[in-house]
Amino acid sequence: MTTRLDLPELQQPSRRTFLKSAGVAAAGLLIGFQWIGSGGRAMAADPAEGTFAPNAFLRIGPDDSVTVIAKHVEMGQGAYTGIATILAEELDADWRKVRVESAPADAERYANLAWGKMQGTGGSSAMANSWMQLREAGAKARAMLIAAAAAAWNVPVSELTTREGVVHHAASGRQASYGSLAAAASKLPVPENVTLKSPEEFRLVGRQAPRVDAAAKSDGTAQFTLDVTMPGMLVALLQRPPQFGATVKSFDASAAKAVPGVVSVVQVPRGVAVVAQGFWAAKQGRDALKVEWDDSKAEKRSSDAMLAEYRQLAEKPGLPARVEGDAATALAGAAKTVSASYEFPYLAHAPMEPLDAVVKLTADRCEIWTGAQFQTIDQANAAKTAGLEPQQVTIHTLYAGGSFGRRANPGSDYIVEAVSIAKALGANGTPVKLQWTREDDIHGGLYRPMYVHKLEAGLDAEGKLIGWRHRIVGQSILAGTPFEQMMVKDGVDHTSVEGAANLPYAIPNMSVELTTTQAGVPVLWWRVVGSSHTAFAVEAFIDEAAQAAGQDPLAFRRALLAKQPRLLGVLELAAEKAGWDPAKPLPKGRGRGIAVAEAFNTYVAQVAEVTVDEKGQVKVDRVVCAVDCGTPINPDIIAAQMEGGIGFGLGAVMHSAITLKDGKVEQNNFDGYQVLRIAEMPKVEVHIVPSGEAPTGVGEPGVAPVGPAVANAIFAATGKRVHTLPFLSQGRLA
Amino acid sequence: MATTLVLNGKNITLDADPSMPLLWAIREVAGLTGTKFGCGMAQCGACTVHMDGQAVRSCVLPLSAVAGKHITTIEGLESKPAKAVQAAWVKLQVPQCGYCQSGQIMSATALLERNAAPSDADIDAAMNGNICRCATYARIRDAIHEAADTLKA
């Protein structure tokens, strides 16, 4: 028997709440996705006899197994463990008996509550939106198990307690495991109201519950899309155009078809697919394929030319993203002014698992296996491609071998490709796996946009910041997507300016402006979205302003953050733990830098220590990180996400860039698109601010401050400012 | 064409194109999926296996080059150092997305099998060919030290 948990009606978030919480869209989407809600689907698996499945998130088996159903994808960020921790906490489950299963795509039951009626993972929102929902789910299930025991023993509910998956009756010494009560509990009504634990009662939240996926990811048994295999499955590689926007003019498949193992060569909207019995045959077939492209609508510019245009645009006013007082007058009347420009390249996400999806398509059904991050959108896009209704599309969400935003895209590119290939093959039920290569990934677009920022600050005679102008130039991530209506307001794409328009520093006259450019290069959010560039510009420039004011960078920030207690809290904690002391600079050739940022309602400050030798080689020795993410659900995962975010961000600012020459991407693989390797990984210390606030996410925010903290440390070590990313060229400071 | 090798301690004959990289022969012909595809050109280490005890990149090694060789994949790890490495990986909660970790563990095991007490510099040198985009590097270093310590004890 399955009883639906009586969840409160999903509230459509206000735009402001939404923008604060997500970085990905909601209400605008409802227009496009209102078909959802036409009835629930079956449970993730039909509960077996004697199983207690009181809501969409939990099953307890007669063998005491506790299965938590995760509506969010596990892509490394620890979502499965966090989700299980929240539910198991209120259930009082035995953590050793808890396992996690992926939820089916079903926006009715598995919506991300931060986004309205859409299932998906992003904007570091998994813990924040699951917190109350899963606590309630766990607590109501626990109440039903207690009620079942009370009825069986004929004792009052108030005399029963629970601990680690067992109901106890102290007076009589009786006890019963949850599994033994499952069948009886499943016949009881779901309670209307339930009392949640107070934080002092937490046994799992705030402790180091081990990751549910650590063992399978240490012995090779964790299943990724790459590992999906089924009888008769074919493997497809897709030849895409060499320039964005080019299309197939003609192709010659004869050599490709001559490769043993190649089964078919089919044209689809995004290119020409070579379909074979395995990867190697498909790869050889694709290498032999000859395609002529029509480049009449292709983007043929070089990134250098685009950058030159962006620099000119940064000299002109943009659309207002934030206006306080009169920045122009303040800057004109300032005792001292300082200005700087910062340049950011296109960045690929380059998750370790190249994109892949397995599709089984018939005339009336589409089944998809992939590390889906935007299930509701993916379902809609797959349906549209297949000519089906979304309800006819089933998605099995698997572990994703990283994503960093790449698998969350409004066009579901890789899934649509896979479905289009299955359709071109005749929709005959033959499973087909679309496999991207690393070259496909690096060439595949949907990059973090290229940006130019220009900042100007004015100081009064006492060195106080009285004026601030910040101009941002770059492509919009959301224009032309279903998210545009929600998150592009008066021409300003929120994701272009977040971290800049909400500048927390108290400056009386401020103008943050955006010039949105047009380019044929597809762009997308990349871990920490806008703050992947805005935090660098703001935090590097505030350091330049502090220098102009003749003040210590920490003291300068502190004075401007008096009304920002949580930012100030992490700033002070990181500084203290790092031993920040302007009276004691590091020895020659070494330097210390600080930066602080808020992203997705999580607050992070970092102090970086670097060594720069005479040749300009940079070593980041240590990063001390302080984070305030509200109630810490799993401190070890929080630390891991800070460590990983620091390494991810560091690799980008040191090495990574996608550049175009005549519209063609110049990098191919990890030789040209360089990322952080172990020898460059600094020692990282993470300090978590104790908090009783509602939990917020940690997957992305740790990325934001590391770049500027390191840039500011390089200045302290060398007297040179970093204005162009990546900052290393041939392994040295440019 | 068939190639015979010793895979995880067992003689096996794989009927496949001899130019097929070992990675795909292991995954798609032998059916062992713990070894991952990351770059196809020995840049990232996700495909690392052992050939006669040495860490090698299976994505660039043609099947013809491994005839008669002893190949070990993550599924075939049995040595004491290997078990110590895997235990340390779990104890220190190294994996995040987990996709690169088979390769990381194969490289770490090969390191400990030839150097029982590696320094940070030894670890960085041995592991620099294994990319982790989640940047679990600090824990990888700590876990290799942890495994070395447990082997000493």
What does this structure look like?
Chain A: It comes from Pseudomonas indica. Chain A: One of its GO terms (molecular function) is oxidoreductase activity. Chain A: Pfam families: MoCoBD_1 (PF02738), MoCoBD_2 (PF20256). Chain A: InterPro entries: Ald_Oxase/Xan_DH_a/b, AldOxase/xan_DH_MoCoBD1, AldOxase/xan_DH_MoCoBD2, AldOxase/xan_DH_Mopterin-bd_sf, N-heterocyclic_Hydroxylase, OxRdtase_Mopterin-bd_su_IorB, TAT_signal. Chain A: Residues 219-297 form the Aldehyde oxidase/xanthine dehydrogenase a/b hammerhead domain. The complex is a heterodimer of chains A (734) and B (153). Chain A has 734 residues and is an alpha+beta fold. Chain A folds into three domains: 15-201, Aldehyde oxidase/xanthine dehydrogenase, molybdopterin binding domain (Aldehyde Oxidoreductase, domain 4, 2-Layer Sandwich); 225-296 and 355-435, 2-Layer Sandwich (Aldehyde Oxidoreductase, domain 4), CATH 3.30.365.10; 303-346 and 447-733, Aldehyde oxidase/xanthine dehydrogenase, molybdopterin binding domain (Aldehyde Oxidoreductase, domain 4), CATH 3.30.365.10. Chain A has 20 helices and 31 strands. In chain A, the strands form nine sheets. Chain A has a seven-stranded mixed sheet, sandwiched between helices. In chain A, strands 13-23-20-19-14 form a five-stranded mixed sheet, sandwiched between helices. Chain A has a four-stranded mixed sheet with strand order 1-2-3-4. In chain A, helix 16 runs parallel beside helix 20. The model of chain A is unreliable at 1-45 (pLDDT under 50). Chain B has 153 residues and is an alpha+beta fold. Chain B folds into two domains: 2-76, Roll (Ubiquitin-like (UB roll)); 80-152, DNA polymerase, domain 1, CATH 1.10.150. Chain B contains five helices and five strands. Chain B has a five-stranded mixed sheet with strand order 2-1-5-3-4, sandwiched between helices. The longest helix of chain B is centred in the C-terminal third of the chain and has 16 residues, at 137-152. Chain B is globular, with a radius of gyration of 15 Å. The chains are: A alpha+beta (734), B alpha+beta (153). At the A-B interface, helix 8 and helix 19 of A face helix 1, helix 2, helix 3, helix 4 and helix 5 of B.
